[in-house]
Amino acid sequence: MSSVTPGAAAPSGALPPPSVTPRRAPGVLRTRPLVAACFLLPALALLGALVVYPIGYSLYRSFFDSSGNGFVGLDNYQEVFTDHRIRTALRNNVIWVVVAPTVATALGLVFAVLTERVRWGTAFKLVVFMPMAISMLAAGIIFRLVYEQNPDRGVANAVWVGIHDTFAAPAPYPGARPRPSGGLADGGGGAFTTTAPVRAGSAVALPLVAVKPEDVAHAKEALPARDVAGKVTGTAWMDFTRGGGGTPGKIDAGEKALAGLRVEAVKDGRTVASTTTAADGTFTLPAAADGALLRLPAANFATAYNGVDWLGPTLVTPSIIGAYIWMWAGFAMVLIAAGLASVPRELLEAARVDGANEWQVFRRVTVPLLAPVLAVVVVTLMINVLKIFDLVYIIAPGSSLDNANVLALQLYQSSFGTDVNQGVGSAIAVFLLLLVLPVVVVNVRRIRRERGERR
Predict the structure, then answer these.
(1) What CA–CA distance (Å, rounded) separates 265 from 232?
(2) 298-302-303 Cα angle (round to 5)
(3) pLDDT at 319 (0 to 100)
(4) How does residue 450 score in pLDDT terms, banded at 50, 70 and 90?
(5) In the prediction, which pLDDT does 28 show?
(6) Which residue range or ranges hold the ABC transmembrane type-1 domain (predicted)?
(7) What count of other Cβ atoms lies within 10 Å of the Cβ of residue 220?
(8) What is the DSSP letter of 341?
(9) 25 Cβ partners below 8 Å, 6+ apart?
(10) Sorting pLDDT into bands at 50, 70 and 90, what band is 243?
């Protein structure tokens, strides 16, 4: 018997020992498909019941009339593109998709970059992100009050009126008018003029009524003007005695002076002299006013500036978009800040060492490195605004609801509103799905591409 020592060569003609390949443990899906199916079945059942079936039934229902019995083909889709309310909703959705995600992402980027440079950046992020904890319903109620037309109630108009009145003084006596048969008549354009020319050396009475009590709350008592030779004098006062009594057209005890009232002397359509009433309501004009008509300009009585009609037909959509940005800028900021934390600081420092200023670093280094995160934020917000419903329905008043209309709101109105037609509502739902699908497909491709790059 021959023996082979270890390490020696095998004898000629002998077969080499067979190589043994280790067997891989089969995956769970290959060895236990039934177990995997049991785990997936509940999720697939919910997905089918809550997503697939509603989509399929909406597509089917969109080909039938309002009763659901008569087949109408593509008539419902034709109405989607011909009805003026639906076209307004489509136009507003385009505005939403273009403006809201762009502005919210830009603000989030600015907030995320700037808060990295301050100590209290975390507190600031908390404040900006806090609106995300508020429901759409609550946010809509908040901004319905913010955009209230009355400056005493609406914050937006209170600020706007305050800024306006800083640069343009309000009228001293808005709404005031002459007493009938008091020597003043309508001069056109809101101004009032005397019915007869005035004469030097003879005092003129200018009695007014309908003056708001708060406008003369701290006014002095009116005093009769003295006759001054060669000059035109007079008194402007509130010709009203509290509790009744008094003589119309004459200054009675306790009647208030109208201080700060502008008085002009007009001859042949040209202003020859002007003055302002004193604290006691008296005024004096030079001799040039002799024979002229006295005019109280409309600026004395102009209605107080009441701010901007934020929820009117013109501004209702931008106003609601502003409320949306207030809520979602914090969301964009948090995601962008998370992406900014992963940016290599060496690249930023290298750019600064090479002589780039902060704006160049931000534009040429920070933003390109954050491009994937910015794409996620923009796509997410685009999908979100295509479904916007709550804010529009709550903030927009009834008079401006058609001007602020969006597809999701029109879907609700067509399906369950006054003109119930679930065929048209289903057609709008299918159309809205078709608008969302491209955005979803782009997002899925981006995710797959990023996963491929990581592998």
Answers:
(1) 10
(2) 160
(3) 95
(4) confident
(5) 47
(6) 90-443
(7) 13
(8) H
(9) none
(10) confident
- Per-residue burial over 423-438, b if 16 or more Cβ lie within 10 Å, else e, is bbbbbbbbbbeebeee
Residue entry with tokens 């969109």: 62
Tokens of 228: 């001054």
Q: Could you give phi then psi for residue 340, rounded to 5 degrees? A: -65, -30
* CA 128 to each of CA 111, 135, 145, 147, 405: distance values in angstroms, whole numbers, following the listed order: 9, 15, 20, 20, 28
Residues 282-304 have a mean pLDDT of: 92
Say if residues 125 and 107 touch (Cβ distance below 8 Å).
Answer: no
What is the CATH number that goes with domain 75-156+310-454?
Answer: 1.10.3720.10
Q: SS3 helix, strand, coil % of the chain, rounded to 5?
A: 50, 10, 35
Residue-level length of the chain = 455
Beta bridge partners of 237: 207, 257
Residue 177 buriedness (CB in 10 A; 0-12 / 13-18 / 19+): middle
Structure tokens at 250: 């004459």
- Judge whether 307 and 154 are in contact, CB under 8 Å: yes
Query: Which residue, 393, 422, 388, is CA-closest to 408?
Result: 388
Report domain extents, the chain: 75-156+310-454, 177-300
**In which residue are the tokens 């005890």 written?**
253
Could you tell me which residues are beta bridge partners of residue 208?
A: 178, 238
Q: What is the pTM of this model?
A: 0.75
- Nearest Cα to 150, choosing from 316, 309, 323, 315? 309
Q: Which residues contact 153 (CB under 8 A, 6 or more apart)?
A: 145
Residue 378 is given by DSSP the state H
So what's the pLDDT on residue 442? 81
Q: How far is CA 148 from the centre of its chain?
A: 13
